[in-house]
Write a structure and sequence with these properties.
Order of helices and strands: EEHEHEHEHEHEHE
CATH superfamily: Alpha/Beta hydrolase fold, catalytic domain
Protein name: Alpha/beta hydrolase
CATH topology: Rossmann fold
InterPro entries: AB_hydrolase_fold (IPR029058)
Largest sheet: 8 strands, mixed
Radius of gyration: 17 Å
Organism: Lysobacter cavernae
Helix content: 25-40%
Distance between the termini: 66 Å
Number of strands: 8
C-alpha cells in the first residue's frame, strides 16, 4: 500500500505505522496528528514479512535525513501491531536522535525472534489494564544507540482500546516526546484524578 501524507512544509515529520486490529479510527488519529502540526505519512502493512516492512520504514527515515530533515524532527509512531515494526526499523536506522513512540503491544519475545539493537529516543506507552502488552524495556536493553528511553504506564481503564482513537492520555506524552522532552528513565504510572465529591450540608 502506498503511503498517504499531509504535506506541511517545515513541519516535524511523523511516520505512522497503524495497527492492523479492527476497530481503530485511523482517519481520526491521522487528523489529530495533523492538527498538532505534524507532516504525517502513513505506512500501512502491505502483506510483507515484519523485517521487510521494517526495512521499508527505515528506508523512508534515511531518505528524509538525506533530504536534510534533522533526525530530531523525525517521529516514528508504531501503534499496536505497528510497534514491532517501529522497533525493528529503529535498529535498521541506527540514529540516536530519531524519535520513536511504541503505543501498546511491546513484546519482549521480539528480542528472541530477531537479533537487533534499537536506536533513537524511545517512548513506550501502554495501559495498566492491557494484560497483553508488556514493558518495552527489554526491547532496548543493551542498545547503546538508544539515547533516551521511557516506559510509560497509564491507568485509564481503556486497556487495549486506549489507542483505538486519538485520546489525550497518549497524545500528550507523544507531543512532549516529539519536542525533545526530558524524562527520567524507568516506569511511571499516571492515574486519572477524580475531583472530590462535595460535602453534603448538615
Amino acid at each position: 500500500m502506498a503511503a498517504s501524507s499531509t504535506v506541511l512544509a517545515g513541519s516535524p515529520r511523523l511516520i505512522y505505522l497503524p495497527s492492523t486490529e479492527a476497530g481503530v479510527d485511523h482517519a481520526a488519529i491521522v487528523e489529530a496528528f495533523g492538527d498538532q502540526g505534524f507532516d504525517v505519512s502513513t505506512h500501512a502493512y502491505a502483506g510483507e514479512d515484519r523485517r521487510t516492512y521494517a526495512r521499508r520504514i527505515a528506508a523512508e527515515i534515511k531518505a528524509l535525513m538525506a533530504q536534510g530533515v534533522p533526525a530530531e524532527e523525525i517521529n516514528v509512531v508504531g501503534a499496536g501491531t505497528g510497534s514491532a515494526i517501529a522497533t525493528l526499523a529503529s535498529a535498521a536506522v541506527g540514529n540516536a536522535h530519531v524519535n520513536y513512540v511504541l503505543l501498546g503491544q511491546c513484546d519482549p519475545l521480539l528480542k528472541h525472534q530477531y537479533r537487533f539493537r534499537m536506536s533513537g529516543r524511545v517512548l513506550g506507552v501502554r495501559d495498566d489494564a492491557d494484560t497483553a502488552s508488556h514493558s518495552c524495556r527489554p526491547l532496548w536493553n543493551e542498545s547503546p544507540r538508544v539515547s533516551e528511553r521511557q516506559d510509560l504506564v497509564l491507568n485509564t481503564s481503556y486497556g487495549a482500546d486506549l489507542f483505538d482513537a486519538p485520546r489525550n492520555e497518549w497524545l500528550q506524552p507523544l507531543l512532549e516526546w516529539s519536542g525533545g522532552g526530558q524524562v527520567d528513565v524507568g516506569e511511571i504510572k499516571v492515574t486519572q484524578v477524580t475531583a472530590p465529591k462535595p460535602e453534603r450540608g448538615h
